[in-house]
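Ticket #4471: structure export looks truncated?
Reporter: QA, pipeline team
Priority: medium

Steps to reproduce: submit the single chain below to the structure queue and open the exported record.
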Amino acid sequence: MDLEAVQAALRHVQWDGWLLYDFRGNNPLARRVLGLPEQLITTRRWYYFIPATGAPVKLVHRIEAAVLDSLPGEKQVYLRWQELESALRALVAGRRIALEYSPHNAIPYVSRVDAGTAELLRSFGAELLSSADLVQLWEAVWTPQQWQLHQQAAQITDAAFTHAFRFIAEQLRAGHPVRESEVQSRILHHFAQHGLITDHPPIVAVGRHSGDPHYTITPQTDALISTEQLVLIDLWAKIDHPDGVYSDLTRVAWTGASVPPRVQEIFRIVARARDQVIEHARRAFAQGETIRGWQLDETARRVITEAGYGDFFLHRTGHNIGREVHGNGAHLDNLETHDDRRVLPGTCFSVEPGIYLEEFGIRSEVNVFVDWNGQVYVTGGTPQSYVPALLAETSP
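Actual output as written to the record:
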């Protein structure tokens, strides 16, 4: 943790301090911001108060008095609950305090502090403010090394599509329909060969399954991929490294010699929404404008709604990407939540609009990284511009 940077951020927004609190690991954001070991086991409440100026204060239970010894600041030890409440009152009374809290649970990723603790702090006269944007500075902003690791992962995930679609085409040309799970296994083998890891297997969805944004292959649903069908592949992975960050991409293909016009038409709408989001981000950062996650979601949603498919766009436009595939920075969301967090330089997010019909669904996903100077990069290869026909003469 860079204490000076935290305090400078607090002074910039004119807040009095940041209260980081955890009980039995229920606030992993606080633990990661403070750089505490993942294996650290605690059974009592601890608090770490960072004032806008001055030395931090550690408030810990006598049984676990050393739990925050790796951090700077004065240590206060409590035993009885009355001592805890008295110490908290002294820290926060009448102050504007950042907390892992989101008004109305608007951003659930940040709502880590329980309602009872919030009630207690308010009873002391504290004004509670969401630490959402502060958390981004330590959770979502990448280091130069992470940017390099992402680019490496993006090259390998990009190549996985060629590998997977070629396998499908070869099997179909040989007259051997292939199951979704077989393609999934090929992708996972490709990842393992190239030093990538992932938290879940990729989505391989054929036909009607592609109309389910979070389709999961099971023994009961594992479908045969045959000719004249749409196949959607959504895959995500990162370099197996402590600072590895994800690449998360989605592409579609048609298992025939030519693609039906309606499929191409739906894809063009989705691609136009995707590209307008990228252009909006580029324009905003080039002009020095503040851009928030919900605004980029609205850009994509407007394109799809005006085309007549707004009711078939079933999820947010994108999510922050970090050590977890769904990271703790601003999401492109004004549907499931109203994400008012700023899109910060040094962060990465997916852009993945989709249209999901009964007979098939189309999603096109790329990753966008905004560097520390506001330069916008699209990663994972050239964004898909059309639906390829896997059995055309020129296909793999």
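Status: closed, not a bug. The export was complete when the record was re-opened. Leaving a note from the reviewer for reference: The first strand starts at residue 17 and ends at 22.
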